[in-house]
Amino acid sequence: MAVGVSVQHGLFSRKTSLIYSIPRKIALSGVCIQRAAEIQSVRASTNTAGENQHSEKYCLNLVRSRDYEGFLSCLLLPEEARRSSLALRAFNVELAQVKDSVSQKTIGLMRMQFWKTAIEEIYRDDPPNQPVSTELWKAVKTHGLTKRWLMRIVTEREKDLDDRAYRNLQELEKYSENTQSSLLYLLLECLGVKNVHADHAASHIGKAQGIATCLRATPYNSSRRKVYLPMDICMLHGASQEDFIRGSREKNVRDVVFDIASQAHVHLEHARSFSHNVPAAATPAFLPTVVLEDYLQRVRKADFDVFHKSLLSRNPLLPFQLYLRSWKKTY
C-alpha cells in the first residue's frame, strides 16, 4: 500500500507540476509577444525617423545645388519656418527643371500632372512616397498653406512648356506673378503673416524676380539657341532672336536689356513703397530682393551687356549681404 500511495503521490506530483507549468508558459509567451511588439514599434519609429531625415536632406541638397541663393535665404528664416520654406523651394525647383530636362512636351505634361495629383493627395493626407511631396505635406499640415497658390505654380509652369518667347512684357509679368509671387505668398504663410501690404509687396517682388530671372537665363538659353525675352521690346529696338543667339553686344541688344531691367527695378521700388506698412515678421520672406538688387546693379555696371563675364560669376559677398539685410529687417 505504501508503494501504491507513493506512486499515486508521485503521479499527483507530476500532474500538479504540469498544471502549474502551463500558466508560466502562457505568461512567458505573453512577455515575448509584448517584447516583439515593442521591438517592432521601435523599428517602425526608427524607420519613420530615417525617412523623415532622408526627405528633409533631399530637399536641402536639391535647393542648395539648384537654387543656391534661395538656399541661403532659407537658412536666415526663423527656425519654425525653415524646413517648410526648403520644401517649398524644392517643389519650385522640381517644377522649374522639368522644361529643361524633358525632350518632349508630352513627358513634361505627364510630370506636371504628377504634381497636380500629388497636391490633391497632400490635401487628403495621403501624399505620394516622394521626398519633396512628403516635406510639402508636412509644410501644409504645419502652416495650413493655401492650395490655390501651389496649384497656380504648377498650372503656370505647365503652360510654359510651350517653349516660346513671351509675346510682350505683360505676359512675362503674368508668368512671374503666378510663379514667383505665389511662392512668396506661401513663404509669408510659413511665417504666419497675413497682411494686405505684405501681399502687395510680394506681388511686385515676384514680378521683379521673374523678369530678372528671364534676363539672367539669357546667356544659358542663347547657348541652346533659345530666346524667351519679350518679343515686343525686341521688335521695338530691332533686335532679332539671332542677335541674342550670337551673343551680340550691339546697342540695340543692350537697349532691350535696359528696358527689361528697368521694369524689374520699377517693381522693386513699388514693393519698397509698402515697407512702412509691412510687418517686420514678413521681411525674411523678401530676402531675395538682395539677390535681385545685386543683379540689377551689376548689369547696370556692365552697361546692360547681358553676356558680360562679370554677370556669369557668383557674388562672393552675397551671404554677408543677405545676413546684414536680415539683421536690419528691411527689404
Describe the structure.
- Helix 1 (2-66) packs across helix 3 and helix 3 packs across helix 6.
- Helix content is 74%, strand content 0%.
- It has 15 helices and no strands.
- The protein has two domains: 55-156, no CATH class; 163-330, Farnesyl Diphosphate Synthase (Orthogonal Bundle), CATH 1.10.600.10.
- The termini are far apart.
- With 331 residues, the protein is an all-alpha fold.
- The protein is globular.
- The protein has helices spanning 2-66, 68-75, 79-96, 98-101, 105-122, 131-143, 147-159, 169-190, 196-216, 218-223, 231-236, 241-245, 251-272, 288-301, 318-328.
- The longest helix has 65 residues, at 2-66.
- Residues 1-23 and 41-47 have low confidence and may be disordered.
Secondary-structure topology with pairs:
Elements: H1 2-66, H2 68-75, H3 79-96, H4 98-101, H5 105-122, H6 131-143, H7 147-159, H8 169-190, H9 196-216, H10 218-223, H11 231-236, H12 241-245, H13 251-272, H14 288-301, H15 318-328
Helix content: over 70%
The total tally of domains equals 2
- At the fourth level of CATH, the homologous superfamily of the largest domain is Farnesyl Diphosphate Synthase
Largest sheet: none
Terminal-residue CA separation: 107 Å
What string, H for helix and E for strand, traces the elements in order? Answer: HHHHHHHHHHHHHHH
